[in-house]
């Protein structure tokens, strides 16, 4: 009989998104952030005369990041959430690069720490629960904008 081995539990992508959204709600550098669903479905209804109707409804667009928001400085925020080992699709990589090219913050996150580190690097300030904001030595917001991509 083979020995029983426990595997380390890994959160689902949905759980990761929920945890990151909770973090973003508490980070004072984030003005707002929401989850955006992508996909489509058919809506079936009826007209006033009783005839059936069908409509195709699409949510967001192909490649759109899981979480979208805005920093308090005005820059756009896009976060693609992936489980450990998960890879972004080509469309997602393109979208994140477009956000970076326009001066926004685009992250591929596998944990809350990835998001916190990305915002810290982008803004040049570290935020801690008890200590508030502290400026990182030698890194200005303009230098953070020219930093290499994080995804």
Question: How would you portray this structure in words?
Answer:
The chain has 151 residues and is an alpha+beta fold. It has a single domain (13-145), classed as 3-Layer(aba) Sandwich (Trna Endonuclease, Chain: A, domain 1). 28% of the residues lie in helices and 30% in strands. It is built from 4 helices and 8 strands. It has helices at 13-26, 90-101, 112-123, 141-145, and strands at residues 30-35, 39-46, 52-59, 67-71, 76-81, 105-109, 125-128, 132-135. The protein is extended. The N and C termini lie far apart (43 Å).
Which regions contain 5 or more consecutive residues with pLDDT less than 50?
A: 138-151
CATH architecture tag: 3-Layer(aba) Sandwich
Beginning-to-end CA distance, first to last residue? 43 Å
The CATH topology is given as Trna Endonuclease, Chain: A, domain 1
CATH domain class name: Alpha Beta
Structural class: alpha+beta
Provide a count of the helices.
4
Largest sheet: 4 strands, mixed
* Count of individual beta strands: 8
Any idea what the radius of gyration is? 20 Å
Instruction: Indicate how many domains the architecture comprises.
Output: 1
Strand content: 25-35%
What overall form do the CA principal axes indicate? extended
Average pLDDT metric = 85
Question: What string, H for helix and E for strand, traces the elements in order?
Answer: HEEEEEHEHEEH
Approximate helicity band: 25-40%
- Main sheet: strand order: 1-4-5-6
